[in-house]
Amino acid sequence: MDAIGGSMESVVNSSAQPEPEGNHLSDFPWIDFAFFFTTTTLILTLNGTVLVVLAKIGVKKLKKSVHNVQILSLSVSDIMVGVSLIPMQVSFYAGEMTHLQCAVRCGVFMVAFMASMLHVCIICIDRWWVIYFKVTQTKTQFLPRCMLLITSTWTLAFVVEFIPLVLWRDSRAHVICSIGTIFGDFFNEAFAYLAFTHTSVLVCVTIFYCFIIVFIMKRRSKINVVQNETIQISISNNTGNGSGCAVNTTESPIPFRLPNFFSNDGIPACDSTKSTPHNKKKRSVVSNTNSCRSTVVRKSDAKQRRALKTIGLIVSFHVLCVGPLIILLFAEVISDDRASLTWHHAMFCLACLSSAINPLLYAFRVPEIRKTLLCKDDVDN
C-alpha cells in the first residue's frame, strides 16, 4: 500500500480485524506531519479562543453589548473543537478503545464542529434580519431572541450529528479512534450524510451573506438620499431667501420611505409662507435634527460595514477550510473507495483550522476585543 493513496482494506472489510498499531503507523510516513498539523491547530484553537473568552468575560464594556453573546457562544464551540482533538490525537498511542468511548469522543467533536458552523450561519441571519427589517431593539428585547438562537443552534447541531452516530456507528472496538474508522462498513451512508449537511450549512451561510451585501448596498443609496435632503435644507436655511426651503429634486433609485424628520415639530417639507423669526427658529431646529440623525445613520452604516467585513472573512475561511473535507467525503461516496487515514486526518485538521482562525479575526476586527488583548487603558472609557 502506498504512503498516501493506498486503500484501507482492513478498515473497509468488516470481517477483517484492525491491524496492530505499530504496523498501521508504519504505513504512514507523513503521520508526523499530521501530528504537527493537529497540534498546531489545537494550540491556536485553545489559546486564541481562551483569550477571546477571557477578554469578553472580564471587560465591562463587552458585557454591555448583547451582540457579543453570539460571539461568546461561537468561542465556546471553538474551544470544544480544540479540546475534542486531544483524545483523537492521543488515541494513536493509547491502545484499543471501546466503541462507546470512541463514539463519545467523536460525537463531541462532530457536535462542536457543526455548532461552530451554525453559529456563523445564525450571525449572518441575525445581521440580515436587523438590516432588512430595520430592527431597533433594546437590550431587554434583543437578549431573549439572541438566547433562543443560540439554544436552537446547539440543539440543531446535537440532533444533526446524533443521527449518523446512532444509525451507522460501528460497534467494534477501534485501535485508532477517528471519523474515518467509527462508521466501518457504513462509511458511504455516513459520509454522504455528513457531506450533505455541511454543504447545506455553507450554502446557507453564503446565501445570507450575499443578502447582507445587497441590503448594505441599498442602505448606502438610501443614506445618500438622506444626506442630499439634509444638505439642501441647510443651504436653504443659510440663504434666507423668503421661502426658507429648497425643493428636493433628487429621487431615490429604489423605493424607500424617508424618515419623518419633521415629526417633532409638525413642520411641512416646504413652507411657502413669509419667513419670520419664529419660522427661522423652527427651521434651525429641524436642520440640526436632520444633521444629527444623518450622522447617526452614517455611524450605524459604518458599524454595519465593519461587521460585514468581519463576517465575510469568517465565511471565507470556513469555505476554504471546510471545502476540501467536503470534496473528500463526496469523492469517497461517489467512487465507493476509502482514502487513507492520513488524508482523513489532514482534511479534518484543515477543517478545524477555521476554529483557530476565528479568535484571530475577533482580535483584529472587533475594536473592544483588540483593545482588551493589547491592554489598552481606554477600553472602559
Task: Compile the SSE list and pairings.
Blueprint: H1 9-12, H2 21-26, H3 31-58, H4 60-63, H5 68-90, H6 99-132, H7 139-167, H8 179-182, H9 187-239, H10 277-335, H11 341-365, H12 367-373
Output the structural class: mainly alpha
SS strand fraction: under 5%
Mean pLDDT over the full residue set: 66
Tell me the CATH topology of the domain at 21-216 and 339-373.
Answer: Rhopdopsin 7-helix transmembrane proteins
Give the tally of β-strands: 0
Provide the low-confidence segments as ranges: 1-29, 241-274
Note the gap between the termini: 63 Å
Transmembrane segments: 33-59, 71-95, 107-130, 142-163, 190-217, 307-331, 343-364
Membrane topology: Multi-pass membrane protein
Domain G-protein coupled receptors family 1 profile: 48-362
Protein name: G-protein coupled receptors family 1 profile domain-containing protein
Describe the structure.
This protein is an all-alpha fold and 381 residues long. The chain has a domain at 21-216 and 339-373: Rhodopsin 7-helix transmembrane proteins (Rhopdopsin 7-helix transmembrane proteins). It is built from twelve helices and no strands. The chain has helices at residues 9-12, 21-26, 31-58, 60-63, 68-90, 99-132, 139-167, 179-182, 187-239, 277-335, 341-365, 367-373. The longest helix has 59 residues, at 277-335. The chain is globular, with a radius of gyration of 28 Å. Residues 1-29 and 241-274 have low confidence and may be disordered.
Describe this structure in a few short sentences.
InterPro entries: GPCR_Rhodpsn, GPCR_Rhodpsn_7TM. It comes from Pinctada imbricata. This protein has 381 residues and is mostly helical.
